């Protein structure tokens, strides 16, 4: 009961903030006659069920140079999913904008393509997943190109609002949970590598040093 009160509080406290951003994005949709719907749908697809991000994390784990990032990313996605999809969403049970009692949100949702989502709204699972995954790269990468992750996180948040499947305040929630998940995964990854370095054996050495490229080359000979 008390958590339903939180959903009502979110709707009330962020009403002006949420409406201003959603109204602006609907104006963008109208200005472009809906021709950019496909773009934001494509961006959103990268976060659907975390499939692409999980696949990316597993791919990175195949290479010695990026294994640490892959492990951290995988952990962040998993941690974020547990916090968001198995705890907060069902507890707070905030309906999505197009399912609210504000009729114009449903009309805006239909204009943006009527993308159907059947779970609760707060926080944004897509934003949680991509924030957790890409902040893992930011925490562990030494490349200056890592700052691009913020653009992709921003685009995901905008896409979920443009499609009218989330309130902007849901995006804020997803950013916070994703950052927490990435931080937890970062320290777990550091612990994993501490153990791998401290206790040397063939299995731990294999985990640290295996590289799919070297494996393929060795089996071609």
Descriptive report:
There is one protein chain. With 221 residues, this protein is mainly α. It has one domain (38-212): Vanadium-containing Chloroperoxidase, domain 1. Helices cover 73% and strands 0% of the residues. It has helices at residues 2-13, 15-31, 37-45, 51-61, 67-92, 103-111, 125-140, 149-162, 168-198, 202-209, 212-220. It is elongated, with a radius of gyration of 20 Å. The termini are far apart.
Largest beta-sheet details: none
CATH architecture: Up-down Bundle
The number of domains = 1
The proportion of strand residues reads: under 5%
CA radius of gyration: 20 Å
Q: Which regions are unreliable across 5 or more consecutive residues at pLDDT < 50?
A: none
The percent of residues in helical segments reads over 70%
Mean pLDDT rating? 92
Quote the distance from N terminus to C terminus. 66 Å
């Amino acid at each position: 009961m008390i958590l339903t009160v939180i959903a009502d509080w979110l709707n009330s406290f962020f009403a002006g903030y949420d409406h201003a951003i959603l109204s602006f994005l609907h104006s963008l949709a109208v200005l472009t006659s809906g021709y950019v719907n496909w773009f934001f749908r494509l961006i959103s697809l990268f976060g659907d069920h975390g499939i692409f991000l999980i696949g990316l994390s597993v791919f990175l784990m195949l290479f010695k140079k990026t294994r640490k990032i892959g492990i951290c990313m995988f952990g962040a996605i998993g941690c974020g999913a547990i916090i968001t999809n198995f705890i907060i969403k069902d507890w707070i049970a905030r309906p999505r904008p197009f399912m609210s009692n504000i009729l114009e949100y449903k009309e805006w949702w239909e204009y943006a393509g009527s993308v159907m989502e059947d779970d609760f709204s707060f926080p944004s699972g897509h934003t949680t997943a991509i924030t957790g995954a890409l902040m893992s790269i930011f925490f562990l990468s030494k490349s200056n190109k890592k700052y691009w992750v913020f653009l992709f996180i921003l685009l995901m948040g905008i896409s979920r609002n443009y499609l009218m499947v989330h309130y902007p305040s849901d995006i804020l929630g997803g950013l916070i949970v994703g950052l927490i998940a990435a931080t937890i995964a970062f320290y777990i990854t550091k612990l994993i590598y501490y153990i791998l370095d401290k206790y040397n054996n063939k299995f731990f050495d294999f985990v640290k040093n295996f590289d799919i490229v070297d494996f393929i080359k060795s089996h071609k000979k």
